[in-house]
Write a structure and sequence with these properties.
alpha+beta, tt1808, chain A, 6-stranded mixed β-sheet, 4-stranded mixed β-sheet
């Protein structure tokens, strides 16, 4: 395999050939190296969010997936050049799933912010999720113990902020509420 270069545009076809030992996301054809391993705090938060979502979705048609899980935001387009690995993805349309991940926008995406990814999550991925039609996008801040929830409404995100003492409704999953005291406990 040739070295991955930041000055070249890549597609999903290129991405699929890369070495699995190093993880990358591909945004607008530009590769972004991912951290080798998330911190224990990141893992605790991810596990707790996954657990609450999984428990709610048990026996329902939607599924929750944890990273690494490829999401090809523009898989149906001629220029398939966006592949992200959200910390958690909720997919309700089973036709979007194949043995490689999700083809198209998940219904919900959750990103746990870290120093190495915060700017990309808050700006670049925010805009790509919006353009792709992700209906609900959560940005979870472990340091501030807060969550920003972005709900797609008429082509724009309406943003609400929550603290570690709140119970947060999941808008795309009617009846689902996430307990942030449980998510952020003992961190």
């Amino acid at each position: 395999m040739k070295a991955i270069r930041k000055d070249r545009r890549y597609t999903y076809a290129d991405y699929a050939k890369w070495n699995d030992e190093a993880r990358y996301e591909l945004i607008d054809g530009v590769p972004y190296a991912m951290s080798p391993a998330p911190s224990p705090v990141h893992q605790r938060i991810s596990g707790r969010l996954h657990g609450q979502l999984w428990q709610f979705l048990k026996g329902r048609s939607c599924e929750v997936f944890a990273a690494p899980f490829d999401v090809r935001l523009n898989a149906a387009g001629d220029d398939d050049d966006i592949v992200v690995q959200p910390d958690l993805s909720v997919v309700c349309d089973k036709s979007k799933l194949d043995d490689k991940g999700c083809n198209g926008a998940p219904d919900m995406v959750l990103e746990i912010l870290s120093a190495s990814s915060e700017s990309r999550d808050k700006v670049l991925k925010f805009n790509r999720y919006l353009q792709a039609g992700v209906r609900e996008y959560w940005m979870v801040d472990p340091d501030g113990k807060t969550v920003q929830v972005c709900i797609l409404d008429k082509g724009k995100y309406v943003i609400s902020a929550y603290a570690d003492t709140d119970a947060v409704p999941v808008h795309v999953l009617e009846g689902c509420t996430i307990s942030l005291p449980d998510v952020f406990a003992d961190l």
